[in-house]
Amino acid sequence: MPELPEVETTRRGVEPFCRGRAVRAVIVREPRLRWPVPDTLATGMAGQIILAVERRAKYLLFQTAAGIALVHLGMSGSLRVVRRGDPVARHDHVDVALAGGHSLRFNDPRRFGCFLWLAPGERHPLLANLGPEPLSPEFDGQLLYRRSRGRRGPVKNFIMDARVVVGVGNIYANEALFLAGIRPDRAAGRVSAARYECLSQCIKQVLTSAIEQGGTTLRDFVGGDGKPGYFARHLHVYGRGGQPCTCCGSQLRACRLGQRGSVYCVACQR
Ligand SMILES: [Zn+2]
After folding, report:
1. Does 58 participate in catalysis according to the annotation?
2. Choosing from 3, 6, 8, 175, which is the catalytic residue?
3. Can you list the domains of the chain with their CATH numbers?
């Protein structure tokens, strides 16, 4: 599943092809995504110039003077840049044809993604109630400490709650908790301010290094091969239950928290 680093890498990959370009046409081959692609997408976006490509949480926002195209990659989606005339593959549901000969192509085998159109000033419910961006200065240990007081649920579920902070998916939550030495099942309200400061830094670190790794796979996003370039990551704990801890050699323990797989070291994480 594309997580925040893949979405940010996609943004960085497609932006140079889109920004300042006029949209010649929008071709919708399959409108039945997670929510139907509205007719207003093609009518609203055609003829507009893409002013900026922004990201909020895991949503991409293509800004124009007439509105915003809001894209989510869902479970299996990818957005890449192709040349006009490149053959259309199965699951290539939406093309945004740009002046100059490139198209943005949205492919999504499982169709859990979305491609919506927001009128100027429209506040979409999907974007309401989102917490701060994890890589922004507003996200820090103080925020985590304040928001967690009185919470009895596991700290891992707390940091994956998009109302607290957006974009901390399961992989990155596992990895950041390992680096911070915090057990994922510890009650969120019982983690100290100093440890939350450390955890906030570790969250920024795992996301930043994933985005940096992603930079090396940018060609996968802009190439024509249709394969989303989800990253091979260097992981300490995620997916490594039963294997030795990279730090102390103890056997890593796997458990489930809120239906999500969690792996931690009983020796290194408390
Ligand atoms: Zn260990």
Report:
1. yes
2. 3
3. 4-127 (3.20.190.10), 141-264 (1.10.8.50)
